[in-house]
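Chapter review. Work through the record for Phytanoyl-CoA dioxygenase before attempting the end-of-chapter questions.
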Amino acid sequence: MNQIDYTTTSPRFSVTNNKELDEGLAYLNEHGYVVISDVMSQDEVNMNKELLWKFIENVSNGTIKRDDPETWSNQW
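Structure tokens for Phytanoyl-CoA dioxygenase:
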């Protein structure tokens, strides 16, 4: 199984800056992926995190609990 490299960071390109966005598209074409920043406000990020956790807890029938990291790697 391949290991994920957590030590390498990817450059971020801001959606609010046309030059950076163009550079981001060039990066996408060269590398096959791109990380775009400033897509959502902090309130939108927080709301979507909450929705994601609610979804995960529901789809796992309660075996994964947000406040209990011990449950995050359960074989659900």
